[in-house]
Amino acid sequence: MNTLDIESHLIGSIYDAALESTLWPQVMANIVSFTQANTATFFGMDALNPDYNFVFSHNVCQQNVKEYFEEGWSHIDKKVLGGALARVGVGVASTNSVLFGSFDNYKQAVGDFYHFLKKWNMTMQAGVLLEHSPFRWVTLGIHRAEEFGDFSPQTVAFLERIAPHLRRSLQIHRKLSIYKEQHQSLHQIFNSMHTGILLLNKQGDVAYSNHAMEQLLLKYPVLDIEHTGLKALDSLKNAELQYILKDTLFAEPIPKRYGGVLTLPVNPFNHHLLLTVVPFTSLALSTNITQQVSAAIFITDSQEPNYICTQVLQKTYHLTESEIRLCESFVNSPNLEQVAITLNLSLASVRTYIKSIYQKTQQHSQAELLKFLLGLKVNFEHIR
Predict the structure, then answer these.
(1) Helix residue ranges, H only, the chain
(2) Each residue's pLDDT tens digit, 159-182
(3) H-type helices in 207-295, by residue range?
(4) Contact 139, 82 (CB under 8 A)
(5) pTM of the model
(6) Domains within the chain, CATH numbers bracketed
(7) pLDDT tens digits for 326-341?
């Protein structure tokens, strides 16, 4: 395969890994091979949702990972390298030498962390920040020893091209992880999600639709799925959709985007459906989905309510079902009087529940609780 074909296949494999996490090590191996690196890590930490923490890597031994966390190097990494990447922006790739002006400046900035990196032949680095907040940090990094020199601008550009695909795949992975403990097959998981999902075969025909998608299209008939090939009823939006689908399924247009994001208006009052199109490497996803799947479309309503990870509230903070229902209502209408009306409770009962929730989650005000709950939001994010 030529370079473009290899990159195309690698991007498809990123979305495959979003559905099946055991594929991530092979994705990391392919990235290492493509970039002439020695090691690669896809790393995420989420203080509010520790169940979402992950480390996928290639050629990184367990002793390396153990020392990284036990010696506190993860905090230095987040503060120094993560801080430098945050200054250039999420989705912007760079090398450590460029970030700090020179390799010597970088060595000075990381201090003793440099000796850890040198020990594991990871001193020359290129990376891209995929998510960043006070509570969350997700990054992709590739590394090699100093004697091999800095990574080329072409390699940095490649990391930047795959960054949005990694971010979208992470969104998909998180949505699936919420339901995996309750449902065994991918078919059951899809049908439990709030996000509408269409799976397409290589010809662009619909191979599968989940319940949420069915409800969206019944309410807002903006797509034609009954005839050959998926179409948008709005002619201008259909032209954009066909371009993205052709790009995703056949990879013919130049430049290649391998999927994308668009909106479909449903009325003139700034109400629309949001669509993310992603490619796969033609997988048979389960016995319930018999056709080979080459692409997926994830659709949400711009006016949908906020959904929060109730499993975290139950397992980590031990909230009761009644308290969880109150949190779900509060995050969408942070007014206790309105919550009382919505749940058909007295205001006194709502205040009693709130006090219990404060105690269990270590929050001290309605503003703190709202910020905490928004940190547990699991709505699908359409990343361009």
Answers:
(1) 3-19, 24-35, 62-70, 73-76, 83-88, 96-100, 103-110, 113-119, 153-180, 186-192, 211-219, 235-250, 310-315, 321-332, 336-343, 347-361, 366-374
(2) 999 999 999 888 888 777 766 666
(3) 211-219, 235-250
(4) yes
(5) 0.76
(6) 3-180 (3.30.450.80), 186-301 (3.30.450.20), 310-374 (1.10.10.10)
(7) 999 999 999 999 999 9
